[in-house]
Amino acid sequence: MSLVQLTVNGTRQQVDVPPMKRLLDVLREDLALTGSKEGCGEGECGACAVLLDGVLVNSCLVPALQVNGSRLCTIEGVSTEGRLHPIQQCFLECGGAQCGICTPGMILATQHLLDKYPHPTMEQIQEGLAGNLCRCTGYMRIFEAVQEAAKVA
Predict the structure, then answer these.
(1) What's the CA gap between 45 and 18, in Å, rounded?
(2) 27 and 70 in contact (C-beta within 8 Å)?
């Protein structure tokens, strides 16, 4: 077992983990942050996406030991004071969230995208969300949610 120290959603955390435990499992099992979902377990779907030191990563591919000393933002850290973040509100209003499996990863990918490109083109939106699969919406409502979020976030 190894001690991992990190800051998750602004709170310092310490977790004793086996050497190859995945970050996704630490979040869900050890820290009870279940917003990140396991979709494929292979880094293909984006359902487990989190922001690690400001970079969008698939937490199913990251060994927990690799995040020692890092800052992490999960979907639980996006809203503040019990109020939805503007990105979350736009997903809700535009119908960009349906079954909810991909939504946490899509929202974090959107946040990452808007940090990089505050007023993204449709091509930048499509490229920024390319690592996230959705089986419900057909993507157009998600793209519309991102466009709306760019206006208010």
Answers:
(1) 25
(2) no
Q: What is the pTM of this model?
A: 0.94
CATH number (3.30.1360.120, 1.10.150.120, 3.30.565.10, 3.90.76.10) of 86-152 reads 1.10.150.120
Decide if 146 contacts 152 (C-beta within 8 A): no
Residue % of the chain over a pLDDT of 90: 91
> Per-residue pLDDT for 153 more than 80?
no
The DSSP letter of residue 113 is H
Q: Would you state the CATH architecture of domain 2-77?
A: Roll (3.10)
Distance separating alpha carbons of residues 147 and 121, to the nearest angstrom = 9
The Cα–Cα gap between 99 and 23 comes to: 24
User: DSSP E strands: which ranges in 18-116?
Assistant: 49-52, 55-58, 71-73
> In the prediction, which pLDDT does 137 show?
80
Asked whether the beta carbons of 144 and 129 are under 8 A apart, the reply is no
Alpha helical stretches, state H, the chain: 23-25, 86-94, 103-116, 122-128, 140-152
